[in-house]
Write a structure and sequence with these properties.
With about 210 residues, the protein is mainly α. It has one domain: Four Helix Bundle (Hemerythrin (Met), subunit A) (Up-down Bundle), CATH 1.20.120.1760. It is built from 7 helices and no strands. The longest helix is centred in the C-terminal third of the chain and has 29 residues. About 35% of the residues are buried.
């Protein structure tokens, strides 16, 4: 799936408006990255301690928005930097794992499909490999690396939707974990095939 179909494009105007607000408040991109990480950790903590599923979904949605805002602030204020990009990427990866860990302590409504630890492990491995495959492709020279079904914005939104479904169908929240795990690995497979095809067509100058 090409990058032009990314979910974040739906929220692009909202992200820009939020970015202007943070600029007026003199927030730096790194401060917003840290705030997004804190919100993700708070979501995981509240879900683990109190099973506040809807609050978890709202906070994950906010964290996802802030993940786009930090980059937009950096572009609008000419503060883009390699160190800032590294910090943002590192915090994103840790947050990706943190928001999945509470599923280890939640009741598993589908034990016939496997234990919770198996699905959490599969989801964590999947989301890390999705990011790793892209970073390696970028380092190798692939230009359009934002491909596949389940990039970060889509994965977070799946968890948000699953938390909302819980109001009508309580087991629906747990389905969010299963969908994230499955789509992440499908995305890894797709990116592997796509990047290999791109790299095979590239010609490098001889030393």
């Amino acid at each position: 799936m090409p990058s032009r179909f990314r979910l974040r494009r739906v929220f692009k105007s909202l992200v820009r408006r939020l970015a202007r607000g943070f600029i007026r408040l003199r927030f730096s991109p790194n401060m917003i990255s840290a705030l997004a990480f804190f919100v993700a950790c708070l979501a995981a903590l509240l879900l683990t301690l109190y099973w506040w599923i809807l609050i978890y979904g709202i906070l994950v949605f906010i964290a996802g928005l802030l993940d786009g805002v930090d980059g937009e602030v950096a572009r609008q204020t000419n503060q883009t930097s390699l160190s800032g990009g590294f910090l943002d990427s590192l915090l994103d990866r840790v947050a990706d794992v943190v928001v999945l860990l509470p599923f280890l302590w939640l009741p598993n409504p589908f034990p016939q499909w496997g234990p919770s630890w198996w699905w959490v492990t599969a989801a964590v491995i999947g989301v890390i490999l999705v990011s790793y495959a892209r970073s390696r492709a970028q380092a190798a020279g692939v230009t359009d690396t934002d491909v596949g079904l389940a990039a970060r914005s889509e994965r977070l939104f799946i968890l948000v939707v699953a938390s909302c479904i819980t109001v009508l169908y309580p087991p629906g929240f747990y389905l969010g974990l299963l969908v994230v795990a499955i789509l992440s690995h499908l995305t890894v497979a797709y990116r592997t095939l796509y990047y290999r095809r791109e790299l095979q067509g590239m010609v490098f100058p001889k030393p």
